[in-house]
Amino acid sequence: MSDSKKKNPLAEPIILTLKEPEEAQQITEMLQDEFPIVNCSEPNRVLRVGAGKPSFWKPKMFVVDMILPGFGAFDLVRKIADQFGSKKVPIVMISAYESKLDELEAYNAGATAFIVKPLTLEKVHSILEADEVKKLKGEVMQEVFDINYD
User: Fold this and answer.
1) CA-CA distance, 62 to 16, in Å (whole number)?
2) Rounded to 5 degrees, what are φ and ψ at 113?
């Protein structure tokens, strides 16, 4: 696991788990000016990314390649969703091919987005903005509920 920027250890990084090191490097270079990036070339390391961090710490987003050597990407997404689901961290699965069946399986596993490569900065911003709107909507709904039932 390597950090592209050494900043605040509690900053919310984007966690990349990609099959091809060259692709991981390209995405890191594209995103690193705006976000801290952590490359986890080994899928098992993704599940330890929060080790030693305070309980409130969470990543900004996970990006998981559809094809991972020696590890099922859907299983990894399920495990990430189990571990970080309560913190509402976006999980993005990326694939070289468009497949409605794979997309459905990704969502069933816990992914919040399914992107056909290439992953672009615009797509990352769009996913993060949609996630923020979803969180704000949930907060407003909770406030309305609290007002109505207090």
Assistant:
1) 6
2) -155, 150
Average pLDDT in the chain = 86
Mean pLDDT of 23-30: 94
- The residues near 5 (Cβ < 8 Å, ≥ 6 apart) are 32, 36, 37
Write down all domains in the chain, each with its CATH number in brackets: 2-121 (3.40.50.2300)
In 3D space, the residue among 1, 63, 5 whose CA is nearest the CA of residue 29 turns out to be 5
Helix/strand/coil for 132: helix
Measured distance CA(108)–CA(93) in Å, rounded: 12
